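S.,

Sequence below, as promised.
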Amino acid sequence: MDIREDDLTGEPIIALLREHLENMHEITPPGSVHALDLERLRAPNITFWTAWEGDDLLGCGALKELAPTSGEIKSMRTPAAHRRKGVASRILERIIEVGRQRGYTCLYLETGAFPAFAPARALYERYGFGYRGPFGDYTDDPNSSFMEKSL
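The prediction came back faster than expected:
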């Protein structure tokens, strides 16, 4: 598996992110979708990675710098055909590694509170993320789970 920084211009990643946003809007109530669109993911404070096996896009994830000492995990997505193969774990490991290299003391994330998000929450729990209240610009939302990990 090859994990590399991505400039978000290739058709496979554009299609995956389109699918991601559509899915988030299908399963999450209006006002509770916090997934970033393509243009917002191209912000200078966001680093985006994709995982590949040959020409197959296996998944993606991003790290948004919140402050010089902290970051937020964004846009973790694995296509259905590649789930349960360790893709999300490898991308998350890369994000954690880069966070440490940058000198971050904490990583944060927001994910859904619905049963559909249980696998994501379980992944983050396995990597030592714990639950907390809203951070940054988020507000308390019963549809969201907020998590953090000290580095």
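The first helix runs from residue 11 to 27.

Coffee later?
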